[in-house]
Structures are given as C-alpha cells and as structure tokens.
Write a structure and sequence with these properties.
By secondary structure, the protein is mostly helical. It is about 75% helix and about 0% strand. It has two domains: about 1-75, no CATH class; about 95-310, MetI-like fold (Orthogonal Bundle). The protein has helices at about 1-30, 35-40, 45-55, 60-75, 90-125, 130-140, 145-160, 175-210, 215-220, 225-245, 250-255, 255-260, 270-275, 280-310. Helix 1 packs antiparallel against helix 14.
Length: about 325
C-alpha cells in the first residue's frame, strides 16, 4: 500500500503542474489580467502601472512569470493581496477555521443523515418510508440553494426570530451554544443537497449488495437482520459511495460561496467571492491551487478507503 500511495503521489505531480499552468494562463486571460485591480482604478497613472509590472515581474515572458510563481509556491510564499497588502497565507489562515467549522459540520451531518436514509430506504424498499425519502431527495436535489437559504432567513430569522441571521457569533458572545445557533441555518442550507444526493447513491448501492448470495447465505444461517445489514451488507455497499463522498472533501477547504455570502459567514468561500469582485489575483490563484491539490489528495484517500472497506482490493 505504501508503494502504491507513493506512486500515486509521484504520478499526480505532472497533473498538478498542468492544472496550475492552466490556472495561471486563465488568470492572465482575464480582463485586465493580474493587474485588473490597478487598471480599474482611474487614479493609477500609466507610468505607475509600468512600475508595478516591473515590481511584480509581469514585464517578463509568461513562462518566466510562471516559473517565478511556481518557485514561490514551493517555498510556501503565495504572494500578497493586491487589495489589502496582507500575505495570502495569513489571509487564508484567518478565514480557514470558520470554513472548517461550517463545512466540517455540514459534511458530518450530511454523511450521517444521507447514509442512514439511504440504508433504511433500501432495507424498506417500496414502503411509505422509502417513497418519503425518495420524494425528499428529489425535492432537496431540485431546490435552488440560494432561494432556499433566503427562505430560511426570512422564516427563522426575520419572521420567527428563532435563529440569528448571519455571522459566526453575536457581538460579545463566543460560547459554543451561540456558535451552534449561528450554524443551524447555513448547515441546513448546505446539507439539503448532499443528503438528497448521498441517500440516493447509498440506496442504489445497498439494493445491489443485499441481493448478493453471501447476504442470502448470512440470512440462511439464522443471523438477525441487524447483523446481516450492519456487518455484511453495509460495509460493501459503502465502497462505490466512497468516491462521491471523497470528492466532497475539497469543499471543506473551499467553503460554499453562496452560503457564506447569504449568511455573512467569514470563510474561504466568502474570501474567494470578495477577491473575484476586486480582481485580487494572488488570493484567487492561491485558493484555486490549494483546492486542485486537495482534489488529487481526496482521490488517493478514496483508493485507500476502498482497500480498508473491501479486503479483496489490493494495490500491488
């Protein structure tokens, strides 16, 4: 397994280089390029733009600019924000904890509810429970997320006043209960689509597994249904679902732009949205690069999970 992981990491390096090169070129093709934050400012004179180009190395050929950027990336230097002048690593570090809390909570809630509903829907196939979960999944998957978030705000924050309308904490409050109250609405908004999707995948996978001969054999041996489902069927049913779940892991870093914007949650998604609006090239590039690297890592983690769940899978 160790040799396989090392081999996958080495073969992923050219892929990551290709992705970063593509992102680098796209940034330069954007209106105004990396200097859009300055070219959109009427107070910046043409001679000042030339000085800034020289300072940032933008007067060099494109391939040299990429090599300079790649060297800085490998040393952990992601540059400075064109808007605030703050180091990008410091900006990401300050916003990341809020995103990890929001996205991590949403991921755990979605995984627990989605997998449970999927398993129970398969076990109780064609019952009222199964039809209810299926209806919920179709509605949840079809809901416009931004509309659903606004409706949650209007109902629970504006009308009923049960929950806060946004932010992480109330002014002067830092307690766990206050944080949970602020998490309820954004986590609900984020979880609705994931629960709908993962429950359908889990149901489909579970239905395929419980029809296998070894499951029928386990029942024929007199094992109770809980052990048959929990010990023999559930583990194997998770294998094809692992990829779907693993691909959601990079979102824990990247945040949710729409959710963090609607609920004024100061996370990476909100930072990315604000950086796009003010053409803050170094911040945009850093977030996209880290997200791309996490996608590659999550695929490797999915392969490792395959081997852990199914002993028949071996990587030589």
């Amino acid at each position: 397994m160790g040799a396989y992981i090392l081999r996958r990491l080495l073969t992923s390096l050219p892929l990551l280089l290709g992705v970063t090169l593509l992102l680098f070129c796209i940034m330069h093709l954007m209106p105004g390029g990396p200097l859009a934050a300055y070219t959109q400012n009427p107070r910046v004179r043409p001679e000042d733009l030339e000085k800034i180009k020289h300072i940032m190395g933008l007067d060099q050929p494109l391939y040299m600019q990429y090599l300079y950027w790649l060297r800085s990336l490998l040393t952990g230097n992601l540059g400075n924000s064109l808007f605030t002048g703050q180091a990008v690593t410091e900006m990401i570090a300050s916003f990341l904890p809020n995103t990890l809390v929001l996205m991590g909570t949403s991921f755990i809630v979605s995984l627990a509810i989605g997998v449970f509903l999927g398993v129970m829907s398969a076990v109780k196939q064609y019952t009222a429970f199964d039809f209810g979960v299926t209806t919920f999944a179709f509605i949840g998957y079809s809901l416009p997320v931004f509309w659903f978030g606004v409706m949650l705000l209007l109902l629970f924050a504006a009308q009923l006043k049960w929950l806060p309308s946004g932010g992480v904490h109330d002014l002067g409050e830092t307690g766990l209960l206050d944080l949970i109250e602020h998490l309820v609405l954004p986590v609900t908004m984020l979880s609705i689509v994931s629960v709908a999707s993962w429950s359908r995948y889990m149901r489909s996978s579970m239905l395929e597994v419980i029809r296998q001969e070894y499951v029928r054999t386990a029942r024929a041996k007199g094992l109770d249904e809980f052990r048959v489902i929990g010990r023999h069927a559930f583990r194997n049913a998770l294998v094809p679902v692992v990829t779907i779940i693993a691909l959601a892991l990079p979102g824990i870093f990247g945040g949710a732009i729409m959710t963090e914007t609607i609920f004024a949650w100061p996370g990476i998604g909100r930072l990315f949205f604000d950086s796009l609006g003010r053409s803050d090239y170094p911040v945009i590039m850093a977030i996209l690069t880290i997200s791309a690297a996490l996608v590659v890592v999550s695929n490797i983690l999915a392969d490792i999970a395959y081997a852990a769940l199914d002993p028949r899978i071996r990587y030589d």
